[in-house]
Amino acid sequence: TDYIYGLGKEYSVPIWRGQATNFIGNNTKVHLDSVNGDTTVCLQIRENSHYSNISFINNSTQKKSWTYSVIGNNSVMNNVGFYNFDDNIEPKNSWGIYLENKKNITLNNCHFGKNGVSDIAVVDEVHNFTINDARNDEEGVSLDIEPNQNTKYENVVSGININGGHYR
Description:
Elements (H helix, E strand, L loop, with lengths): L2 E3 L4 E4 L2 E3 L3 E11 L10 E3 L4 E9 L10 E3 L3 E9 L11 E5 L2 E7 L2 E3 L4 E5 L3 E7 L10 E3 L11 E7 L5
Parallel strand pairs: 1-4, 2-4, 3-5, 4-6, 5-7, 6-8, 8-10, 8-11, 9-12, 10-13, 12-14, 13-15
């Protein structure tokens, strides 16, 4: 389906690979627990998506490496939460949102908490990324801009716009 209208309830799912491009959550909470072992990426939002008023909460006892969320190109997240994407393996490989090879993504009033390395990681080939009024009520939003390419540094990231919010 293209549209989902949530009823403001709580759900538990093993993994979220959203097929709907429009999700109106009405304060829906989705608890994630990737117990099936096929992946440790708990949250995947497809391209051209518009999500609003939903929170994704990773199982805090799940400590798998490479735990994070990915958002597809040309997507807008309005009042979406990303919580507990963390691991206990060194080095830590967990982020609230991990962006690599992405473009045209906007986060409006998104909220974060208890994510591993950072709430938002901007890595290689990220272009036209906007953050408006992000928040992490406990400590401020942790934003990493961390190009990983060793051979070239031209056009690795461009068009990053940050408006409002509190960062650490």
